[in-house]
Amino acid sequence: MLGEGSVAIRDRSYGGLSRAQRVARRRTRLLDAALELFGTRGYGATSIERLCATANVSTRSFYEDVGSREALLIALVNRTSAVANERVAAELAAAADEPIARRVVRGFRAYLEVTCADRRSARVCHVEVVGVSQAVENWRSEQRRVLAALLVGEVERAARRGEIPPRRFDLFILALIGAVSSLAQELVQSTRPDAEPSLDEICREIRYFVDSGLAVG
């Protein structure tokens, strides 16, 4: 009976919110705080105490709800990447009747419009997430495979329809993702405001790569 009562106490509602709802709200505040702090101060310069103070969450709740600063970073970028991948899939579907090169570029543009929605997001998704730990690198590798699968599938369908010569496309798409990430980093790391590339400029460079790599004349 004591055990059942303990569960009931943990799950009881406060202020009309269940425990699950309170946890979800705290996580959202922590994710929003992480976007602001990781995106302006940087991941390495942001302490758990600073995150908690910004999010108005206790350190105890932080460890219970999130676990670690590393886990919070992954959750933050995962939140953005999930939306970005949905946008890529939607854009590819909307561009089904366009030439394959234009479809691929539209897919990458949709991805960048989400991950680089502002300077904070661009910094977190393309700079701060790099080289943090092996766990984060493993996560990044999996995310690359998810995005690559969307684009490889699109290119392979184009090859089956005779739009482009058939070949192995997975390595090309992975190389292209790496190039796009490097270009996105310039949005954050450029030391001269007049040299900072625009999204249009980045997409033009992507188009050059795509035309060459897919042998589009």
UniProtKB/TrEMBL annotation:
This protein's UniProt keywords: DNA-binding
GO MF terms, alphabetically ordered: DNA-binding transcription factor activity; transcription cis-regulatory region binding
Keyword Lipid metabolism: no
Pfam assignment, any one: TetR_N
Origin species: Nocardia panacis
Protein name as annotated: TetR/AcrR family transcriptional regulator
Keyword field contains DNA-binding: yes
Residues in HTH tetR-type domain copies: 24-84
Superkingdom of source: Bacteria
